[in-house]
Fold this protein.
Amino acid sequence: MVLAIAYPSTAAGDPHRLSAQKIASIASDIRSRLFGIQPRPVEVAALIAKTVRLVVNGKPITLSWGLDRPIHDENGHEALGVCENDPELPDTVMISINASLLSHQPEVIRSTAAHEFAHAIFDMPAALQVGQPRLAARGSTQIGDVDLGGGGNIRRTFRTSVAPAIARPGAPIDWVEWRADEFMGAFLVPADRLAHVLPRYASALELPFRWRAAPDGRPLPFVDLDPSEDLLGLLVADLAEVFGVTAAFMSVRLAKGGFVGAHSKQRG
């Protein structure tokens, strides 16, 4: 299959400044076309099989995935994953996951695959063209371009941490890393799928929840417990298993989607 993906971009192939809502829409659409609408874990083997051939904003790209080699960043530190291109293969993007390092952490393999997939979608189309500027190392992702003097560029993005990139106060936002994190979260745990299953699991645990309107008008289930409540941990664990992510990952998705905690915070 050929997976066609489109988003607003410059003539050079760089994405425009996409909102979190737009990125989530792109991620959810891609997930639906690849795996349907059922709330379940994204299987990495299936993701690899279904994403060999892409067309991103009209540009054909071949994805070459690898799970069988150790990965080190440009400082020699072991990394979770890398997305890179090679000018000798002008339409190919390579994604490697350090599966040996993560052999007992399938949830992190899954999130790393989604994270690097995002880099392939948003950052590599421009890198496949000649003459792109270099990028410096940033945040929890090491990003670098090697200018080959007219022969093309090598761009590499390393994932070295599962923690989301958070800018220091006053520091500029790392839009490349932020975009990959936003895509990863919405791809693995789409908000609409989470809203669909949350009431069933909250009811099973006899947790207080109610419905309220989301910013776009959709009904949103809201668990009326502060995130610090121990009981909420049971719900987080159940939902994390449904989507095949870590509890920490699910906690972020619940908070980010406005499914927990806001009402309690307002009362406090």
